[in-house]
Amino acid sequence: MGRTFGDVYEVEVETGTITPVTHHYYHGGYTRALYLANGDILLSGPRQFNPEAEFEWRRWRCELWVLDKSLDSPPHKLGTYCFEGPCVSRTQMKIAWTQNFGQEQVPVGRFVIWEAEIDYTSGKPQLANQHLVIDNSHPELDGALLEVQNYRPPEEKEIIFQSTIGIETFGIHTESGELTNYSLAPETHEEPEGIFPDGKHTLVESDRLASVGKWPTNIDFYKLALDGSGKTERLSYFSESGAYRGTNPVVSDDGKYIAFQVSPSTATATHGRKEPSKPGYRQISFLRLLRLSCRIRILKKLFFMILLILRIGKGMRVHLSLFLFIYWLY
User: What residues contact 302, with CB distance under 8 A and at least 6 apart?
Assistant: First the structure.
């Protein structure tokens, strides 16, 4: 997302190439974009946008849409509202999402988690076999705000979600109905984010070990075991500066990389970090700079060696000034 209620972009990590995904049609802006198992993109966003009520529209006016991976047409509306973001299966054409009071089919005060398949038999995507997974009338969730996050791999029969009863990380088994509190930390903020592909851990935004400030200014991300022990491992320490926080971490499908956002500790949700004096300033990691430097040095070495071989091969003496110039470049 370029920003909340902005356009969607795809970033090629290896090259840094940024490709706009939603520039080819008019829309009201998006708050979420997730790849479906077939490569199409599930979007969450309103039909229109009211800048005077951003918070309301981000949470209560967003609808779900499916954008074809060909990117040659506008998205198809699925006909349902979504509170915050949905979650998608990595292997099957199914999704889960939350609705709450004031939204379709949901009485005032209720938060409901739905699950459904995305069916294409009619020629365009539509919801099929929609059913209730759980709502906040459950005794352990009474009155809580619920927000889905991920299907737990590899079986994907459990949905990991957030409950505001203590801001805990829960899992609900979609077949047995078994509900599990994984974070077991009612005194701290434990919001699930990206999940590891083996399903043994999830990343959470948490303030459990923060020594500076208070929520939400002191958030960092942790690795939480999904074995019921509540065991965590802290992975970032941005909040210890008192000026920044680490949020929204996601895990690559091979489990080797984590992408995350760093923002000022007092910034509005989804606002990333950039230099105010340089609009659009792009940060480049030290590792990427190191790779770039090594590639340049290798190219210079090859250029110098080829030129030297060609000169010697012709029986000509390498001109001193040219030699010094190339040596200086190197």
Answer: none
CATH 2.120.10.30 fits 9-264, yes or no: yes
| Beta strands in 121-200, from DSSP E residues, in sequence order | 126-135, 146-151, 158-163, 168-173, 179-181, 190-195
In which residue ranges of the chain is pLDDT below 70?
55-57, 101-108, 268-330
DSSP-assigned states of every residue in 106-139: --TT-EEEEEEEEE-TTSS-EEEEEEEEEETTSG
Q: What's at 89, amino acid-wise?
A: S
**Cβ atoms of residues 194 and 160 within 8 Å:** no
Burial level of 104, CB count in 10 A (0-12/13-18/19+)?
exposed
Nearest partner of 146 among 126, 162, 122, judged by Cα: 162
Residue 217, helix vs strand vs coil? coil
Distances (CA, A) of 235 to 187, 205, 287: 20, 10, 18
The residue length of the chain stands at 330
Give the residue extent of every domain in the chain. 9-264, 286-329
Secondary structure (DSSP) of 225-291: ESSSS--EEE---GGGGSSEEEEEEEE-TTSS-EEEEEEETTSPTT-----TTSTT-----HHHHHH
- Provide the whole-model pTM: 0.78
Tell me if the bond preceding 216 is cis, omega within 30° of 0.
yes
Question: Side-chain half-sphere of 211: how many Cα atoms within 13 Å?
Answer: 4
- Are 184 and 191 in contact by the 8 Å Cβ rule? The answer is no
- Give the separation between CA 239 and CA 219, rounded to whole angstroms: 6
Amino acid at 264: P
